[in-house]
Design a protein that fits this description.
alpha/beta, six-stranded mixed beta sheet, about 20% strand
Amino acid sequence: MILDATKNCPAVFRNEIRFEPEGDERFGLRIQPWQERDFAALDPAWQALARRRRRRPPRRAPRRRAWIERPRGHSKTFDMAVQIAWVLLKGRKGLSGLVAAADRDQANLVWEAVRRLHDANPGVCRRLKFHKHLVSNDRTASQLEIISADVASSWGLLPDFVICDELCHWDKPDLFHSLSSSAAKTPDCVFAVLTNAGIGRGWQWDAREHARSHPEDWHFSTLPGPHAPWIAAESLAEQRRLLPAPVFARLWMNEWQHSDGEFVTLAEAEACRDPGLAERSRGRPGTQYVAAIDYAEKHDFTAAVLLHREPGSGESGGERIVVDRLDVMVPGPDPVPVAWVEEWIARVARDFQSVRFILDEHQLVGSIQKLEGERDIRRFEFQGGKGNHALALALRRLIVERNVAWYPDCGAVASDRGRDDLETELASLLLKSSAGGHCRIDHRPNLHDDRAFVLGAACLDLLRESTTTDWLHVTAPTRAGGFSL
């Protein structure tokens, strides 16, 4: 049936919806030209899918494929949530849609955006019902399902629309291939890719170039550099300081990179070496020390660091963090005994007196349970996403601004590759970012990151305890306020 869709067209819906439940500001009043271009390109495909066409059929079939490539904070997720909500509310009965991402948490961001849209517009969106990993229309039985990289369950599906979120972070192409082939089986299926610029020239780049070179089938849109007026210049400037240049260029300038960004350069790490410092075996009275231990039984290093904060000794006259000792156990034929960790803790507690210990709650749960009654012990999830994000950005900023210092040959071990110490390890690391915007440090094959991790964990604990955190404000790359996901 051909309907007069003036009243029910997507543009009218966008102009009607509000940002906040109690506010009067309409989404349509804040749409930027680059958003409007992407909306307008897909509107005919959504209307055809919903069977709400204009009285006059279009001269040619609408493009049902879209590649939307924008910098962080430029409303990819919310813009798509608006389109999904419209088709679920206005479309014919029984529409079935999928949102897929590298993991469920990332895919659920679309679910959350649709939910926020519903909460801000309960009258317009009253038919939408929310279940775990599912949004449905209680009248038409149309639904949106949230899936992750589970290829076995994606083959054979016949969805009416498919959204591939943050494709540049998908590890393997299998899910993308299965979903794109499923979309091809349904004549009116809308298939859209939302992504930031990626890394390398692998299968994601090939998919991008296919979309770019086939304008008859694909709406290809890439937005160079930040354009969103809701992103403050101060926030961008801080991100430029916090992130290596390649990471900033990819996340915020939307420029494809050949590889992940290096964490710090060797020159930046060496600049933190203070020849006036030496490894310490005794503490100073009245000084609060922080120790962190990363234990590995067989393959990685076991590293233990001790440090403290010195007021008024930083590069710019503010505080700096000083490493007192960094002990490293290199794995050999036999596993590193947990007893080494417990003996190190006992010795440091005796010789430095006021010490707070940071331990991995998974690696050393037995030692934590044994010692936390007599020692000041805090748990740190060394492999946790949010903890590693704060650790990576805090440690990088401390190094780049020379607000951390260590003694010559700090953390040095014998190696058949030549020099192997804290500085060379830091210079070998990569800074990687996830689809959700969290950063983490990672090591290259056959290298290590254990010394950097313990240094970062201990520094992060000191920073959180500092009463003058204005000198080092750790800010994560976050989405813009409001609905700008």
